[in-house]
Amino acid sequence: MALLAVDIGGTSVKHGIWNDEKLGNKGSFRTPATWDEMKTEFMVLKNSLGEGTKISGVAISSPGAVNQNKGVVEGSSAVPYLHHFPIFAELTELFQCPVSIENDANCAALAEIWKGEAKGLKNVLFVVVGTGIGGAVIIDGKVWHGKHLFGGEFGYMLLKDNAIFSELGTAVNMAKRVAKRKNISENELSGEEVFEMAKNGDLIAEEEVETFYHYLAQGIYNLQYSFDPEKIIIGGGISSKEDLIPELNKRLDRIIKQVEIAPFIPEIAICKYKNDANLIGAVYNWYQNWCQAPIKDK
Family per UniProt (predicted)? Predict the structure, then answer.
């Protein structure tokens, strides 16, 4: 069974063919400006597969709050024309085969429990640390969307007075705080540069790096003792930092010593899949929606 996997992003649309338990024929095109242009690109993609590749379904990763029951992408995103119309029905008619759509962060999480760092686990949290903080909640091997489709929107969590997790627990905002304290433009500093500055003894950078690690660890601690997952997987740009897990474990250990009633440190890990995570997770979501038999991993 061959599936066309598609990952819609704000600047590009990635795609590939899932066949024989692997992702191949990968490519991408620039995200079109309108929905009509997107559908044209989809037809070009479909026709380019040729007669030798017959697809049984289309698995899509999309931004926004995907309402599976209504067949609509709700909320808002960097691709505004995807929202608030019967997109499932239009794509099913366009491709003439079963279509599934899931939120991109949820897809990344599904990739991890299917074939990645959380393989074999049932209850997992996926925390995406980028410009802000988002993620996914996996319960019993499936995405838990929540009443308002806000399951996994961890960035809204209040951690200090009126400051939310997204403000305190990302390297992007850490760099902005350093820039503000040094009276320079926010665009002049990156998170990587701040980490390097701290390593070289810059006191302001050291303070803000400590703030970043402390609040990221605190957010993870809160999530662990709210959901009690088997594992918390970290994705996003920060996941490429080699010493991230040891640094977080160091802060988590401090928190556990302060909260004496808490009996264990959360188990955290870096995601296995990077660029292909959304495509692989979209495939797994398609299987969950369209296959009656249990999904087996070879």
Answer: Belongs to the ROK (NagC/XylR) family.
pLDDT (0 to 100) of residue 187: 86
pLDDT tens-digit map of 228-274: 999 999 999 899 999 999 999 999 999 999 999 999 999 999 999 98
Which of the four pLDDT bands, split at 50, 70 and 90, describes residue 11? very high
Per the CB < 8 A criterion, the answer to whether 138 and 123 are in contact is yes
Contact 56, 2 (CB under 8 A): yes
The answer to whether 187 touches 193, Cβ cutoff 8 Å, is no
> Are 90 and 207 members of one domain?
no
From residue 28, give the alpha-carbon distance in Å to each of 9, 15, 292: 10, 6, 31
DSSP 82: G
- Under a CB-based contact definition with an 8 Å cutoff, are residues 136 and 152 in contact? yes
Answer yes or no: are the C-beta atoms of 223 and 125 closer than 8 Å. Answer: yes
Q: Which residue range forms the structural domain that includes residue 93? A: 2-103+275-290
Residues 85, 223, single domain; the answer is no
Where residue 73 sits, what CATH number does that domain have? Answer: 3.30.420.40
Q: What confidence score (pLDDT) does residue 295 get?
A: 55
* Res 61 pLDDT > 50: yes
Residue 282 one-letter amino acid: A
Which tokens is 5 given? 């996997």
Residue that has been written with the tokens 């590749």 in this structure: 53
Q: Which amino acid is at 109?
A: A
What does the pLDDT read at residue 293?
44
Number of domains the chain is built from: 2
Residue 261 token pair: 């009633």
pLDDT tens digits, 176-204: 999 999 999 988 899 999 999 999 999 99
Closest CA to 190 of 126, 131, 260, 103: 131
Own/partner contacts of 23-32, CB < 8 Å, gap of 24 or more, are: 23/276, 23/279, 23/280, 23/283, 25/53, 26/276, 26/279, 31/79
How far apart (Å, rounded) are the C-alpha atoms in residues 132 and 152?
12
